[in-house]
Amino acid sequence: MTKVLIATDKPFAASAVNAIRNVVETAGFELKLLEKYTEKKQLLDAVADVDAMIVRSDIVDAEVIEHAKNLKIVVRAG
Q1: CA 25 to chain centre
Q2: Exposed end of the chain (fewer CB within 10 Å): N or C?
Q3: 3/32 Cα distance (integer angstroms)
Q4: Does pLDDT of 46 surpass 90?
Q5: Are 72 and 50 in contact (CB under 8 A)?
Q6: DSSP 8-state class, residue 10
Q7: What is the pTM of this model?
Q8: How many CB atoms lie within 10 A of CB 52?
Q9: Taking 90 as the threshold, does the pLDDT of residue 21 lie above it?
């Protein structure tokens, strides 16, 4: 199953998360949510099995990409 991760240390509005969840789940994908993370390791663990990632101002550097073996797209919201 395709997995989409919302990863942000500063959470999106609940209505935005709900709208994203609706689109993702209607498409038959799984949504993972990582909000208010405080350590990069949390992000590295979360990206391990995702196909897509939505971030705000979070930094998606080479280390994150390296840990995200299935990652096909990163979307920056905002």
Answers
A1: 14
A2: N
A3: 7
A4: yes
A5: no
A6: S
A7: 0.92
A8: 19
A9: yes
Taking a C-beta distance cutoff of 8 angstroms, is the pair 58, 8 a contact? yes
Per-position DSSP letters for 17-67, written without gaps between them: HHHHHHHHHHTT-EEEEEES--SHHHHHHHGGG-SEEEESS----HHHHHH
Residues sharing a CB contact under 8 Å with residue 50, sequence separation 6 or more, in sequence order: 3, 4, 5, 32, 68, 70, 71
58-78 per-position pLDDT tens digit: 999 999 999 999 999 999 987
Q: Compute how many other C-beta atoms are within 10 angstroms of the C-beta atom of residue 10.
A: 10
Token pair recorded at residue 72: 């096909």
